């Protein structure tokens, strides 16, 4: 084998290893995507908190923040600011202040998109069986959960509901080893 052939093989091997490391790094970064999921008062009152958390855990997502809170009107108006011109806005806010909610931050690969799919369509009657709304709710005004609809809104919502120190960035041997390659 010539020196040039050996060099070419070595270079291909290094390039292949580098590409693999780059792919793993990109995947690891994607695994750190976060979404804000909130169980609304109807879900809390109906005792569905554990079942909803269980679905996200079983799917392989990591819970990095959780709190139960009865949010103020002002806090909820800020959260739903993009809906303020909708005719249902006053009744939405009135309903949301009627009881406690469970605010959560979930982390994992494509969690924003997959979290929305797990919740189901906003109108529960259009939600597939197997989705949270498809299994547990009937009317839009009592659709059990809220989930971020984009990474940007997730970041905004997470910052609105949680202080930085309330988010637990930890390594999970189970999830990191058995959910992701």
UniProtKB/TrEMBL annotation:
SUPFAM superfamilies xrefs: Nucleoside diphosphate kinase, NDK
CDD domains referenced in this protein's UniProt entry, alphabetically: NDPk_I
Gene Ontology terms describing biological process: CTP biosynthetic process; GTP biosynthetic process; UTP biosynthetic process
Coiled coil regions, renumbered to chain: none
Catalytic residues (UniProt): 146 (pros-phosphohistidine intermediate)
InterPro entries on file: NDK-like_dom (IPR034907), NDK-like_dom_sf (IPR036850), Nucleoside_diP_kinase (IPR001564), Nucleoside_diP_kinase_AS (IPR023005)
Lineage: superkingdom: Eukaryota
Documented EC number(s): 2.7.4.6
Keywords recorded for this protein, A-Z: ATP-binding, Kinase, Nucleotide-binding, Transferase
Requisite cofactors: Mg(2+)
Recorded GO MF terms: ATP binding; nucleoside diphosphate kinase activity
UniProt cross-references to Pfam families, sorted A to Z: NDK (PF00334)
Annotated Nucleoside diphosphate kinase-like domain residues: 32-169
Reactions catalysed according to its record: a 2'-deoxyribonucleoside 5'-diphosphate + ATP = a 2'-deoxyribonucleoside 5'-triphosphate + ADP
Residues binding ATP: 40, 88, 116, 122, 133, 143
Family statement drawn from the similarity comment of this UniProt entry: Belongs to the NDK family.
The protein's name in its UniProt record: Nucleoside diphosphate kinase
Organism (species): Pristionchus fissidentatus
